[in-house]
Structure to design on (1007 residues):
């Protein structure tokens, strides 16, 4: 099989409208040769999971600054589990306190990139972890 | 259960996986496409084209919602440009269709135009086929909006809508310059704006100069995408157009052309592979060197490569 | 400057360059090939009188309190009154926020600034499915007049000025404020404060829109009209560059896009038939203060001058108050780092200094821990103390516009003014701010700047202390504020009580009258006031208008 192109869903769950980070990441991933499916603001967990399925993405990148991550992220992970999906890498970014990071990682969010993260680190992380 | 069976049962994960395979490695996908082929041909394929900013995604979204109210199943292929340098892309058409994301009877796939050998139409055609096989009644293909890919997409649709909007200034020139002919139905979107009537008059004038496709008089419809205005009548026109083209024999012709194009694309790709397989990379590079040094010209180089190909083909035949 | 004098100066400068400067450079080259400001504009090694030889003091600077207001909007500036210290706050439910406001007022804060939670900002009630997980998170949850009564309990509304960061449902929150005052026995004409009410920047940068641009603009002009008759001391809009800058714009883009939005609002109001000098004095602005001290000061000065010119010459305003750009400033949230968060105190100090030197009318200083979570009480206090130290100890408040006359700052003020004007011209050509936004021009310009900035940090062209240089291991900051997770349940319970105790027929009737008004084009404020008085919920009111106006959907402009 030929080398496949990495596809990433960049989604903003929750209601906050701060998409600077999400858009900078989207561009950085595009410039690294990936296909980024960008779905915009106010995405529900259901929308995110269905989109990830239809678009057959390798990665879901969640960006959130509203503080609702401890409600929304577990919901997304539950929905993926319900559908029996375990081959999608889940990463996240935004304003997420340290103690929540540990808990979210336990739930299955593979990495959380807080403000100030180099986009090259994110690209490398994806390339390394997408099989 | 085999992938094809899952697809025939409408399993969206299976559909998504096969589309990925089509995009990344067509040859591996081919055997599944073979299995699906007998179940295809039922869906009506609507191409949606027009300049960037004319509201293609919104029109697609509204038409899909209209069809869902009539309990029809819908597939959407949304194409965005890939970077010619990195091959990466930001696919953002879905953003306007996310209300439909959780509807089990709608399947949306964003596609990067990539630098496909064999043209974008080959993989698009395969994606259409997969969505057709999964049981979609209608499939929309939303184009990039600029360049060669417009013309390509036309070759895979039954009916083409050309979306324009008032106040685009020079953009009307772009329409005049090439894609006017491909629209079966004209949609003036954002029709609550100044300049709508003038734009309609301009289109009417242009259409007047064009010869009719099998006596089909191309209608011009007004919509306001963001307010869901005008889509009932637009859909009625689409149905009317389809029946007209069917009755006049034009539809059979179009589908035949599509099949021809499909076979032609597959042939071209097979030939290309066979050719390079037989002449080998070295010969090609040697010729490139020669011509670059101005030691020879590309015409002779090509002739030499063809004779190597013929020779090797002959040898293999033995 | 006289001609001979200038000639001599230029000669002397040449000779300095050739002898002294060149020699130094050959021995000790400069640190970089190119020096730039925080917004990537090139900076020369030296500025001198030749750089500002075109400057005409009376025409370009003038005197404070007089056209073109470059040096400030009041004749005495901070000698008369210091800026209003206004910390943006609000979280959880109305009870908790009420406590925080009383604490801030007790600590010397002089105005309130209300943060609302996202469901409130987007017009969803706390029990709406989209609200799950968001109630009370980034601000206070307001579902009905009941919450507003609690929020201002014990705070006499004729004694404070209140700023509300609310946009799409601004009319509703203003109506609630008016009714709370009514119940406190305070007539509406006495109310002082601001609603943000700036929808255009929501489409550009902040994302809490509800309706499409056209009906949104109508709501805004309805508010202009209502307030110019009934609330003469209320700032009807705070045209905001803050979020545009946070989204990654440059300093020039920040003021250019903000003023272009301002032009669109004035245009809309004039088209509606309002008298410019009736509503324009109540327009206010809101800017960001970034790290590059001089560039930021120049930006504020250039913005004032540009707006004065626009109002006078483009719109023909007669009242000098219409030409004054009065603004609130917040320090730049996007410059705060999660790494070594205490460093943020220093960043905030520099930014606050820029705001004060730039002549701000009010100021919010960010707390050090905001890159990590909502600020803790202790961090908020440090932030407030930071501005108090600048105000009372630094000495910069003792004279008006102390930085004027600096060759560098005056030159940069002019450059920023020109560059911003170029953008405004470009936006005019595109058909005005709403069109430019629809075409994605504005968003793309900002995103390009944001991406450039990010790449400069990653290539270390730009140094961020503690992030790409001078990193160190650190103890994570403690005592971060956590919003009580029970808030959502509590809020929903309160909402249900409101539903049970109100007169349902009355509410239905008022809501349907509101819908009619929305359709008819009548001024919507009186109808919203009636709904609010009868405890119609914020989400119910927004839904009436959603049915008439539709909802806005973003599209990707990358």
């Amino acid at each position: 099989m030929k080398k496949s192109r990495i596809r990433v869903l960049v989604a903003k769950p929750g209601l906050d409208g701060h998409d600077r980070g999400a858009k900078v990441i989207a561009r950085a991933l595009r410039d690294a040769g990936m296909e980024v499916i960008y779905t915009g603001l106010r995405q529900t967990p259901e929308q995110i999971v269905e989109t990830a399925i239809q678009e057959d993405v390798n990665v879901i990148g969640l960006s959130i600054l509203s503080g609702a991550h401890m409600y929304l992220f577990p919901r997304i992970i539950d929905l993926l589990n319900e559908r029996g999906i375990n081959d999608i890498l889940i990463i996240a970014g935004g304003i997420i306190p340290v103690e929540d990071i540990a808990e979210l990682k336990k739930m299955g969010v593979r990495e959380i990139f807080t403000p100030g993260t180099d986009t090259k680190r994110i690209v490398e992380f994806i390339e390394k972890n997408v099989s | 259960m085999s992938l094809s069976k899952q697809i025939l049962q409408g399993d969206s994960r299976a559909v998504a996986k096969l589309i990925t395979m089509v995009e990344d490695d067509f040859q591996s996908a081919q055997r599944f496409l073979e299995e699906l082929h007998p179940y295809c041909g039922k869906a009506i394929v609507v191409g949606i084209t027009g300049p960037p900013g004319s509201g293609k995604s919104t029109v697609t979204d509204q038409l899909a919602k209209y069809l869902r109210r009539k309990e029809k199943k819908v597939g959407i292929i949304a194409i965005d440009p890939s970077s010619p340098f990195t091959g990466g892309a930001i696919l953002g058409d879905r953003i306007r269709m996310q209300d439909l994301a959780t509807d089990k009877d709608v399947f949306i796939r964003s596609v990067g135009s990539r630098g496909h050998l064999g043209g974008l139409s080959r993989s698009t055609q395969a994606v259409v086929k997969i969505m057709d096989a999964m049981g979609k009644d209608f499939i929309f293909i939303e184009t990039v909006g600029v360049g060669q890919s417009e013309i390509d997409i036309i070759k895979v649709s039954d009916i083409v809508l050309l979306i324009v909007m008032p106040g685009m200034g020079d953009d009307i020139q772009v329409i005049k310059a090439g894609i006017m002919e491909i629209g079966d139905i004209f949609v003036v979107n954002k029709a609550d704006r100044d300049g709508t009537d003038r734009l309609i008059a301009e289109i009417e004038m242009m259409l007047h100069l064009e010869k009719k496709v099998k006596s089909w008089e191309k209608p011009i419809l007004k919509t306001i995408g963001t307010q869901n205005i005008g889509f009932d009548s637009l859909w009625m026109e689409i149905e009317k157009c389809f029946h007209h083209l069917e009755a006049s024999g034009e539809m059979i012709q179009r589908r035949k052309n599509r099949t021809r194009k499909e076979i032609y694309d597959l042939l071209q790709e097979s030939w290309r592979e066979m050719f390079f397989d037989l002449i080998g990379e070295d010969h090609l590079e040697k010729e490139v060197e020669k011509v670059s040094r101005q030691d020879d010209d590309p015409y002779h180089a090509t002739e030499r490569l063809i004779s190597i190909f013929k020779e090797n083909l002959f040898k293999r035949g033995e | 400057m006289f001609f001979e004098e200038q000639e001599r100066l230029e000669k002397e400068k040449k000779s300095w360059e050739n002898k002294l400067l060149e020699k130094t450079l050959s021995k000790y080259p400069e640190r970089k090939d190119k020096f730039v400001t925080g917004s990537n504009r090139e900076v020369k090694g030296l500025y001198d009188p030749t750089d500002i030889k075109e400057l005409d003091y009376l025409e370009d600077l003038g005197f404070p309190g007089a056209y073109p207001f470059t040096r400030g909007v009041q004749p005495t500036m901070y000698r008369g009154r210091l800026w209003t210290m206004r910390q943006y706050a609000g979280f959880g439910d109305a009870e908790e926020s009420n406590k925080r406001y009383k604490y801030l007022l007790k600590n010397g804060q002089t105005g309130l600034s209300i943060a609302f939670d996202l469901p409130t900002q987007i017009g969803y009630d706390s029990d709406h499915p989209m609200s799950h997980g968001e109630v009370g998170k980034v601000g206070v949850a307001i579902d009905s007049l009941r919450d507003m009564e609690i929020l201002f309990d014990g705070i006499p509304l004729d004694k404070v000025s209140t700023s509300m960061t609310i946009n799409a449902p601004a009319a509703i929150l203003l109506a609630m404020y008016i009714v709370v005052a009514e119940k406190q026995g305070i007539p509406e004409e006495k109310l002082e404060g601001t609603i943000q009410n700036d929808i255009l920047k929501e489409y550009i940068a902040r994302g809490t829109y509800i309706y499409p641009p056209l009906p949104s603009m109508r709501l805004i002009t309805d508010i202009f009209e209502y307030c110019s008759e009934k609330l003469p001391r209320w700032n009807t809009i705070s045209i905001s560059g803050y979020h545009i800058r946070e989204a990654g714009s440059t300093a020039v883009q920040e003021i250019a896009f903000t003023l272009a939005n301002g032009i669109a609002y004035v245009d809309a109001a004039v088209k509606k038939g309002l008298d410019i000098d009736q509503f324009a004095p109540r327009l206010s602005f809101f800017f960001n203060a970034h790290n590059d001290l001089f560039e930021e000061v120049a930006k504020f000065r250039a913005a004032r001058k540009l707006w004065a010119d626009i109002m006078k010459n483009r719109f023909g305003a007669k009242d000098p108050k219409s030409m004054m750009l009065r603004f609130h400033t917040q320090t730049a949230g996007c410059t705060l780092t999660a790494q070594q968060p205490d460093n943020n105190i220093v960043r905030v100090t520099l930014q606050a200094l820029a705001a004060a030197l730039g002549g701000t009318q009010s100021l919010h200083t960010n707390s050090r821990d905001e890159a990590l979570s909502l600020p803790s009480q202790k961090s908020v206090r440090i932030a407030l103390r930071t501005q108090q130290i600048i105000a009372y100890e630094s000495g910069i408040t003792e004279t008006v516009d102390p930085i004027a006359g600096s060759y560098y700052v005056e030159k940069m003020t002019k450059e920023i003014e020109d560059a911003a004007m170029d953008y405004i011209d470009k936006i005019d050509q595109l058909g005005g701010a709403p069109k430019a936004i629809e075409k994605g021009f504005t968003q793309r310009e900002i995103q390009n700047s944001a991406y450039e900035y990010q790449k400069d940090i990653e290539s270390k062209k730009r140094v961020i202390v503690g992030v790409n240089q001078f990193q160190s291991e650190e103890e994570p900051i403690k005592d971060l504020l956590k919003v009580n997770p029970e808030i959502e349940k509590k809020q929903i319970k309160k909402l249900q009580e409101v539903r049970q105790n109100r007169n349902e027929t009355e509410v239905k009737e008022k809501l349907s009258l509101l819908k009619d008004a929305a359709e008819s084009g009548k001024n919507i404020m009186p109808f919203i006031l009636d709904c609010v008085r009868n405890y119609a919920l914020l989400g119910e009111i927004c839904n009436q208008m959603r049915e008439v106006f539709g909802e806005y959907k973003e599209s990707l402009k990358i």
